[in-house]
Amino acid sequence: MKYKIALLPGDGIGPEVTDAAVKVLQFVAEKIGIDVSCSYHLMGGCSYDANGTPLTDGTLNACYDADAVFLGAVGGVKWESLPHHLKPEAALLKIRKSLGLFSNIRPAKVYDALLDASSLRPEVLSGTDIVIFRELTGGIYFGEPRGYDETKGWNTLVYSKEEVERIARKAFTVARQRNKMVTSVDKANVLDSSQFWRKVVHQVHEDFSDVKLSDMYVDNAAMQLVRNPKQFDVILTQNLFGDILSDVAAMITGSLGMLPSASLGEKYALYEPVHGSAPDIAGKNIANPLASIASIALMFSYSFNLSEIGLVIENAIAQTLEKGFRTADIYSEGMTLVSTTLMRDEVLKSLEEIFEEKKSVIAVQ
């Protein structure tokens, strides 16, 4: 099997965590006997500096031509004063829309070794394993009309039936492979668009009667994520709510540096760590690469259809943490503080150990 990967390291710590991700990708690919070729392209602030635009047609065409796209991070204070359409974040919205990446998958799993890294009590966190399905190309971020003048500002929140149906189907499909529970999060008590969302989700649920569906208002969902995160399995929600709730879920795990994501469409897929570009620590070799490495695990699961290999990578991360290695963002007393590159190398060592143990059963058919 051969796969073409378009790499978009981006800005800030993006190139550093991308390097770690690529090393793991290449190591695992060689171990299981698949051919992976990678090409590098500019996106974000670095693209604006070089080309006057955060996303060139050349970069977009490379993504169209790839089997999967990996993004490091974009943005930074340097480009904050630019017009909206030239900011690095505008490139992210454009690439999601252009590739039709309507489903953003954000796992929030609490590793046993990091129970003390969160501000929540270990007994509250232990066993937390959530997947948030955030609709990515509709809703208030893309609705028209939008704008502001001297006296008011306005945005439009619109969802079509097709947009709700396709994200709901993906959420129910994954829930069926997990604990068969979906919590659909909306604001149907005050928003007509949420009443429509709820109606369509329940219609789709008729095809997934083996999966339990419950509805929850977004304000309550935010509270419940902090109060009792173990009650959730799969959370399904719209763009704005998912943007907020996924960051809440990020912090209950202890660090944004731990969370991966996958953005999927009918044809294309983009993988990226949830964290930002963190320009204040860029170039210092102290960023946490585990979210980017975990994003590679998602790539194996969703783009390569090798979920067992994705699980191997997740287990290597867990094993590395059990050994006591920590980057600064998740460090606690008594642990071994390591750099970005050393954490990467320790994950590679854990992978080597796992492959040695399971070499008789792990293989690509």
Draw up the topology in text.
Elements: E1 2-10, H1 14-32, E2 35-40, H2 45-51, H3 57-64, E3 68-73, H4 88-98, E4 103-109, H5 122-125, E5 129-135, E6 147-148, E7 153-154, H6 161-177, E8 181-186, H7 192-205, E9 212-217, H8 218-227, E10 234-237, H9 239-252, E11 260-264, E12 269-273, H10 290-302, H11 307-322, E13 325-326, E14 336-337, H12 340-358
Helix pairs in contact: 1-10, 1-12, 6-7, 8-9, 10-11, 11-12
Shape, principal axes of CA atoms = globular
**Main sheet: strand order:** 2-1-3-12-11-4-5-10-8-9
CATH class value of the largest domain:
Alpha Beta
**What is the CATH fold-level name of the largest domain?**
Isopropylmalate Dehydrogenase
Please write the string of helix (H) and strand (E) elements: EHEHHEHEHEEEHEHEHEHEEHHEEH
Major β-sheet profile: 10 strands, mixed
Count of extended strands: 14
N-C termini distance:
10 Å
Q: What structural class do you assign from the helix and strand content?
A: alpha/beta
Q: Helical stretch count? A: 12
Q: Any low-confidence stretches, pLDDT <50, length ≥5?
A: none
Strand residue content: 15-25%
